[in-house]
Amino acid sequence: MKDNFCVILAGGVGSRFWPYSTTSEPKQFLDFLGTGRSLLQMTYDRVCKVVDKENVYISTNRKYKDLIREQLPSLPESNILFEPSVRNTAPCIAYAMYKIKAINENAKIWVTPSDHLILKEGEYIDTVNRGFQFVAENDCLLTVGIKPNRPETAYGYIQIGENEVDQNLFKVKTFTEKPNVDLAKIFLESGEFYWNSSMFFWSAKAISEAFELYMTELARKFSDGKAFYNTPEEQGFIDKIYQSCTNNSIDYQILEKAQNVYVITADFGWSDLGSWSSVFALSNNRKDKNGNVVLGGRAMTYESHDNVIALQNGRLAVVQGVENMVITESDNVLLICKREEENRIRQFVNDTKVQVGKEYL
Amino acid sequence: MKDNFCVILAGGVGSRFWPYSTTSEPKQFLDFLGTGRSLLQMTYDRVCKVVDKENVYISTNRKYKDLIREQLPSLPESNILFEPSVRNTAPCIAYAMYKIKAINENAKIWVTPSDHLILKEGEYIDTVNRGFQFVAENDCLLTVGIKPNRPETAYGYIQIGENEVDQNLFKVKTFTEKPNVDLAKIFLESGEFYWNSSMFFWSAKAISEAFELYMTELARKFSDGKAFYNTPEEQGFIDKIYQSCTNNSIDYQILEKAQNVYVITADFGWSDLGSWSSVFALSNNRKDKNGNVVLGGRAMTYESHDNVIALQNGRLAVVQGVENMVITESDNVLLICKREEENRIRQFVNDTKVQVGKEYL
Fold first, then answer.
1. How far is residue B93's CA from residue B59's CA, in Å, rounded to a whole number?
2. What pLDDT is attached to residue A14?
């Protein structure tokens, strides 16, 4: 257990939920499901059931320091890793890995998003334990594939190899981008394709070798700092080298290139909560009799059904004659949009930046 | 001119515009038409073109003191009359009248709402001057009837007598309630019916005699305070007697009973701005190319037309796929409602009070 570490990635800005989710308080810090705990808090609670608290790290942007301290008061401040700028997953995973490796050469590292939903915690914990075990015994990079139940076009897929190397565990044949709906149907029917959950397991040894092989320059930058990790000099060192890192994802730069990539398949009630529609679909237990979901504040609805209404705390919405809409807001922005058009929200964010100004983001 | 006084009634709560208009900042204090001046300020500006500033009084609720001081900094504080509670028009007109009469027995008093729109100021000023002149020369109560241009069902009507006693000036035959649409059409075609603008002219003598005759008890209460008006004791006296006044309107209790009631007919581009639809109709010059009217903040619209969007200052609305709606808000309430259902807003206010609490009003 002492060799098992977890890195929770919590630096995202959640623009698909703008303006309810803003750059000053993004998705992972919000209580999307009315449980009283934010997505990050729920992730942390789950992780702590499997990994010793002192081995849990959170990678985030510096501006979220106060939010994290507030939401996770028991997390030691030294376990928060601050990215000086947004550089996608490869640099922040490299940073976390070299820092952990400096503590424990034998570390096994689990990397997980902070803003996903898990409904079946028992199955989830079983998968995590098997993941740690597999990467302890095998010099490999392990991904987690979720058994698909619909031809989802919003997720990437992992195709499994033909032979099961262990129970529910396969070599990865290919990673695929988000498919169109026809292809997604074929994926679903084939039984060979699983949703990419963006959770990974690996030993510090295996992932550092992969960085050295496929991202040599990045690996050199971070390994050069060995003497600084876990010292007062660490942040200064990171601040210095981070600017020079390019935006790269661990998926493209390593997982799609490496030869020792495996996938453990699972079915633990997973959702990336990537859209209002997924929040809507997962909120059946709190819909009113007309199918409206209300977050944040409260609502009085008349002739209105199947809306998602996500308000600032303490606000009241009175809604008449509205159906299938997303109604959401921040301090200074109100967004009203058809649910089926929610994939345009990112465009609205860009339009706002250009036409109105960054102060609304 | 020194005998001419004006009383601007500014105590209403504007619930038809809730929550954009709230009890803490009602309709008359808001800039509904994007002119940079509130309806009260525009009313005051117009009144001061005809009446000496020191003769202009504003009757309001005490809680609006700061708003009035802020919006009308040149108005002497002694010219603000505070109603201790809401008692409809008869008590507040009686109060203003007895106070003014204590200053000037020969006063001619013009009573006007604070929240109406006047488009043709020249014609309006002519009407006001003629009104003052008529009540100076005749011991009567004079109302102002607006020439109707449509079968409006939201207004009361005044039927004129057969003989023109002066140019555009008639004895009143009847006052009528808001008619249904069939009756309103008959009114319009008859040429005998005019919209009741709720503006009145009378001499202090004529209206005090009418109070003594038709509202004897109320007249006695206010005339008993003769020694207190325009002294430091005035407010204390008013606070004491006001609680015992009953809710009564000047229309029902005096104008519909008195025998010396006249009407001057006019056509000065009047609207009572009584609904979002009237604001919408009068905002043609500031609609965007899709017919959306935006007040308060700013809006970016997509596939959205003919909406009224009334926001808190500084807010941005991003609106997609919405048509013919009212979207409006206060600090803590968001209202979305079909424009054609806006007459239900008062019901929503009541529902809110009952179901959620007064803190949202």
1. 8
2. 83
CB atoms within 10 A of CB A333: 25
pLDDT tens digits for B133-187? 999 999 999 999 999 999 999 899 999 999 999 999 999 999 998 999 999 999 9
The whole-number pLDDT of residue A58 equals 98
- Are B323 and B304 within 8 A, CB to CB? yes
Residue B323 β-bridge partners? B305
Distance CA A168, CA A272 (A): 21
CA distance linking residue A31 with residue A48, whole number of Å: 19
Q: Which residues touch A331 (CB under 8 Å, ≥6 apart)?
A: A312
DSSP state for residue B313 in the 8-state scheme? T
Q: Are B196 and B157 in contact (CB under 8 A)?
A: yes
B349's enclosing H/E stretch is helix B345-355
Find all residues with CB under 8 Å of A317, minimum gap 6, and list them.
Answer: A294, A297, A298, A299, A300, A309, A311, A327, B333, B334, B335, B336
Contacts of B178 (CB under 8 A, 6+ apart): B153, B154, B155, B156
Q: Is A192 exposed, middle or buried (0-12, 13-18, 19+ CB in 10 A)?
A: middle
CB-CB neighbors (< 8 A) of B334 in chain A: 311, 315-318, 327, 329, 334
**Model confidence band, residue B33 (pLDDT cutoffs 50, 70, 90):** confident
CB-count exposure of residue B277 (10 Å: 0-12, 13-18, 19+): middle
Q: pLDDT tens digit string along A218-238?
A: 999 999 999 999 999 999 999
Chain B residues lying within 8 Å of A332, measured CB to CB? 314-316
Q: pLDDT digits over B279-328, tens only?
A: 999 898 899 999 999 998 999 999 999 999 999 989 999 999 999 999 99
Q: Which of A16, A294, A316, A339 to mutate to test the interface with B (most CBs of B within 10 A)?
A: A316
User: Which amino acid is located at A326 in the chain?
Assistant: V
Q: How far is residue B203 from each of residues A139, A232, B97, B225, measured CA to CA in Å? A: 101, 85, 9, 19
pLDDT at A35: 85
Q: Residues B91, B242: contact at Cβ < 8 Å? A: yes
- B316–A352 CB contact, under 8 Å: yes
For chain A, what is the mean pLDDT? Answer: 95
pLDDT band at A199 (very low <50, low <70, confident <90, very high): very high
Residue length of chain A:
361
Q: Report the alpha-carbon distance of residue B217 to residue B208 in Å, rounded.
A: 12
Angle, helix A234-242 to helix A89-103, in steps of 10 degrees? 150
Phi, psi of B216 (to 5 degrees): -60, -45
Task: List residues in chain B touching A: CB distance below 8 A.
Answer: 19, 298, 300, 302, 311, 314-322, 325, 327, 329, 332-338, 341, 344, 348, 351-352, 355-356, 360
- Residue B48: strand, helix, or coil: coil
Q: Please report where in the chains the tokens 């048509």 appear, as a residue.
A: B323
What percentage of chain A's residues is helix, strand, coil (to nearest 5)? 40, 25, 35
Rounded distance between C-alpha atoms, residue B300 and residue B278, angstroms = 23
